């Protein structure tokens, strides 16, 4: 499979599983799809104030520069992160954001997709699974990895007592993405 | 060598692994069985991983009370025959210089990982590059390897152990925040495909053994402490027997040998890689993570019809002079790329003096170069 590099930024606040989301997606791409991936995160004192962001590049070829300020997809789970990182979305890119957030996208031609990630996770029993809803949504809408890839890596990564909740959240995210197709 | 009691020493397979973890796995694959370190970001995940993994394979982990304690523990373990490593980050690397100087003088093989950081935090930099060469007092030659990826953090850590064993010299793995805290594809080969070198042990009984006897630029045979070989390991000038001797001839013979054993083997130690250099008129010379945007920039330049290549310095010290000079003779100019005020660029200027001009794409603001920035720099030089 040959593909152009896909640049994804996950952002939100600490505790939402932002970095974990990028790691799970990257692990699935590398260990199960035989792709290349690079994942970095902001790791300075500024991140301790609550903001958190992780970058993931997935490609069929080795990746040189680990940074890219033109993201194809931004996943935002907090208002502060959304406001801060939206300018890094490339023209024609896609913003996936939690429905509880407000966005003002007049300056960009990006596609915007509100996903009720937090709401869905709460209905499943715990809002901490919002990141898994988003991962399920990303998997189904991009097909960068398969459902089986994602489920398997979630099984290997998530603590046993949260596994059932997380797998339900992944499935709910996939259902939310039915009929949504993101070109990557 | 030590057998593993539980757990696997070599995690053969494809991983999506953190750079710091890849260093630990490389060390284990090379046969490391002792680690001592003191907590410091962004090197902590190396210690964390070693603390978990070393006991699984029959090795020993020590959390040092500080950096000096850690480096001396590593030296002691090495003298007892262990393959030993420590990891730290810039500010901690300062503290290790004394123990490091001792290790050079007594020819204790060991591996030191410096995960460079700047702005007092976990920001990218290559500003320790000169300290890694001659940070300690005394005359010696350093071997410093500069990985550019998670895969190379694994591969070069193995190579660091091999060179340390082969030359009885400390070897430094020059890591950086950029790659240490990055997750990336890592392929770990089967254990039997990994080349591992071990130091040469003496075959002589203690009565006949001279601990520092070696050819003019050679490496002495090793005898471990605790096995009846009562060697004095002194930082002071010492003769073949290890006795302290202040005679100028003894002193000169010693430092000429411990520097000569590295200098005379530069072809074995120095590794470089060439990209698009066959017909290049302009070359970027880079090491560590800066190789990555340099490669992207060279490809952008090629797409615009500029014949640009990249020389990657996998070994930073000793300077790969022959390889740099070859590029200088072929090109109209070279561009030194690094994340500091232009420290290694001075070495490139020295090698290229009178052959071709050296331009400097250097800066230190906690950020790796973007490919576009280097591309613009290339355009300026090309015109």
Please supply descriptive tags for the structure shown above:
heterodimer, A: 184 residues, alpha/beta, Pyruvate-ferredoxin Oxidoreductase, domain 3, 6 strands, globular, B: 383 residues, Rossmann fold, 2 domains, seven-stranded mixed sheet, 14 helices, 38% helix, 19% strand, disordered N terminus
Task: Please give a quick description of this structure.
The complex is a heterodimer of chains A (184) and B (383). With 184 residues, chain A is α/β, with parallel strands linked by helices. Chain A has 7 helices and 6 strands.
Distance between the termini of chain B: 58 Å
Average pLDDT taken over every residue of chain A: 91
> Order of strands in the sheet with the most strands of chain A?
2-3-1-4-5-6
Order of helical and strand elements of chain B: EHEHEHEHHEHEHEHEHHEEHEEHEHEH
Principal-axes geometry of chain A comes out as globular
Low-pLDDT runs of chain A: none
Number of strands of chain B: 14
Oligomeric state of the chains in view: heterodimer
Strand content of chain A: 15-25%
Give the neighbour order of strands across the main sheet of chain B. 3-2-4-5-7-6-12
Tally of structural domains of chain A: 1
User: What is the fold-level CATH name, i.e. the topology of the largest domain in chain B?
Assistant: Rossmann fold
User: Low-confidence spans of chain B: pLDDT under 50, at least 5 residues?
Assistant: 1-5
CATH-defined fold name of chain A: Pyruvate-ferredoxin Oxidoreductase, domain 3
Structural class designation of chain A = alpha/beta
Estimated helix fraction of chain A = 40-55%
């Amino acid at each position: 499979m040959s593909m152009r590099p896909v640049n994804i930024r996950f952002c939100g606040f600490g505790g939402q599983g932002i970095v974990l989301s990028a790691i799970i997606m990257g692990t699935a791409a590398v260990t199960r799809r035989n792709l290349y991936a690079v994942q970095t995160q902001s790791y300075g004192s500024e991140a301790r104030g609550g903001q958190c962001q992780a970058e993931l590049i997935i490609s069929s070829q080795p990746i040189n520069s680990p940074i890219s300020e033109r993201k194809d997809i931004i996943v935002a789970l907090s208002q502060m992160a959304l406001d801060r990182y939206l300018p890094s979305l490339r023209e024609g890119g896609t913003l996936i954001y939690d429905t509880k957030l407000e966005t003002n996208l007049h300056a960009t031609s990006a596609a915007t997709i509100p996903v009720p990630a937090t709401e869905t996770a709460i209905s499943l029993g715990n809002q901490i699974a919002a990141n898994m809803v988003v991962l399920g949504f990303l998997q189904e809408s991009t097909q960068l990895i398969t459902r089986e890839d994602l489920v398997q890596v979630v099984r290997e990564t998530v603590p046993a007592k949260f596994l059932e909740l997380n797998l339900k959240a992944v499935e709910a995210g996939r259902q939310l993405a039915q009929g949504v197709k993101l070109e990557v | 060598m030590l057998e593993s009691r539980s757990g696997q020493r070599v995690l053969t397979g494809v991983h999506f692994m953190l750079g710091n973890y890849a260093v630990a796995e490389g060390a284990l694959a090379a046969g490391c069985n002792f680690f001592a370190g003191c907590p410091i970001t962004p090197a902590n995940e190396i210690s964390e991983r070693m603390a978990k993994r070393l006991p699984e394979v029959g090795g020993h982990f020590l959390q040092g009370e500080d950096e000096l304690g850690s480096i001396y523990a590593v030296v002691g373990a090495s003298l007892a025959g262990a393959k030993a490593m420590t990891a730290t980050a810039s500010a901690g690397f300062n503290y290790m210089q004394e123990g490091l100087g001792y290790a050079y003088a007594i020819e204790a093989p060991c591996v030191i990982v410096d995960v460079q950081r700047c702005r007092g935090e976990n920001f990218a930099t290559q500003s320790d590059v000169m300290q890694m060469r001659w940070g300690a007092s005394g005359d010696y030659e350093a071997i410093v390897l500069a990985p550019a990826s998670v895969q190379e953090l694994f591969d070069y850590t193995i190579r660091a152990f091999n060179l340390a064993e082969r030359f009885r010299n400390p070897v430094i793995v020059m890591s950086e925040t950029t790659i240490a805290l990055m997750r990336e594809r890592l392929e770990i080969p089967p254990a039997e495909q990994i080349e591992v070198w071990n130091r040469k042990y003496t075959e002589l009984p203690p009565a006949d053994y001279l601990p520092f006897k070696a050819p003019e630029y050679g490496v002495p045979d090793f005898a471990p402490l605790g096995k009846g070989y009562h060697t004095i390991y002194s930082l002071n000038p010492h003769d073949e027997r290890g006795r302290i001797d202040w005679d100028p001839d003894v002193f000169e013979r010693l430092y000429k040998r411990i520097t000569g054993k590295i200098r005379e083997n530069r072809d074995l130690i120095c590794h470089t890689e060439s990209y698009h250099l066959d017909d290049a008129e302009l070359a970027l010379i880079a090491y560590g993570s800066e190789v990555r945007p340099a490669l992207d920039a060279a490809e952008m330049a090629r797409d615009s019809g500029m014949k640009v290549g990249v020389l990657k310095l996998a070994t930073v010290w000793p300077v790969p002079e022959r390889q740099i000079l070859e590029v200088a003779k072929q090109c109209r100019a070279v561009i030194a790329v690094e994340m500091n005020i232009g420290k290694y660029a001075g070495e490139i200027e020295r090698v290229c003096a009178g052959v071709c001009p050296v331009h400097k794409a250097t800066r230190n603001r906690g950020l790796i170069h973007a490919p576009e920035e280097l591309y613009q720099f290339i355009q300026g030089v090309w015109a």
